[in-house]
Amino acid sequence: MMISKQATASRVLAVAAAFCAAAMVVPVVGCGGGSSSGPSNSNVTPVGNVTVNGRIVDGGSSNAAVAGAQVFLGNQQFTTGADGRFSFVLQNPTSNPLLRVLGPTGQGFQDTGTFNGRNISLGATGVTIDVAGGGTIDLGDIQIYGPNYPPLPPVFPE
């Protein structure tokens, strides 16, 4: 059985057209809007006042409390006391605030720290805190590292 050149060309064009159509559909299907743990200031439906608590500790010295750390949440600032604790009250937040932490002035703390088991940039970049659930949010211990601790691995955006 002999196939004409015109029939072969038609089949090649049909296969190429099907491939191109599939290539255009795959990216659209892959953009399903999954969640991201990276920085986001997405809008939040106001849920009343939200309290955010935590403690700044020195990850390089058996988690000793860090006094004098500057903690920023949104447009608010708090200086930790001897116990390393901080507490913020957000009144009817409409977006997820950015948390930033700076070690005490002149003590050489690194910009990177550990929060929820992962290395993050706490100073310049910060981390977004999800306040959509309202109520009281306990962030637990946030580790920062002094100048005698080796630098943490680099932080890569997610």
Distance between the termini: 57 Å
- How many strands? 10
Q: For this structure, what is the CATH class of the domain at 50-144?
A: Mainly Beta
Hey, roughly how much beta strand do the residues contain?
25-35%
Estimate the global geometry from the Cα principal axes.
Answer: globular
Largest sheet: 6 strands, mixed
Number of helices: 1
Oligomer: single chain
In the CATH hierarchy, the architecture of the domain at 50-144 is Sandwich
The CATH topology of the domain at 50-144: Immunoglobulin-like
CATH superfamily of the domain at 50-144: Carboxypeptidase-like, regulatory domain
Query: Radius of gyration, Cα only, in angstroms?
Result: 25 Å
Given as residue ranges, the uncertain stretches (5+ residues, pLDDT < 50) are: 1-40
Task: Considering the chains and any ligands shown, give keywords for the structure.
158 residues, alpha+beta, Immunoglobulin-like, six-stranded mixed beta sheet, four-stranded antiparallel beta sheet, 10 strands, 16% helix, globular, disordered N terminus
Short description:
The chain is an alpha+beta fold and 158 residues long. Helices cover 16% and strands 32% of the residues.
Can you tell me about this structure?
- It is a single chain.
- The chain has 158 residues and is α+β, with helices and mostly antiparallel strands.
- The chain has a domain at 50-144: Immunoglobulin-like (Sandwich).
- The protein has one helix spanning 5-30, and strands spanning 50-58, 64-65, 70-73, 76-79, 85-90, 98-102, 112-115, 118-121, 127-128, 135-144.
- Strands 1, 2, 5, 7, 8 and 10 form a 6-stranded mixed β-sheet that branches. A 4-stranded antiparallel β-sheet has the order 4-3-6-9, with no helix packed on it.
- The longest helix is centred in the first third of the chain and has 26 residues, at 5-30.
- The chain starts with a helix and ends in a 14-residue tail after the last strand.
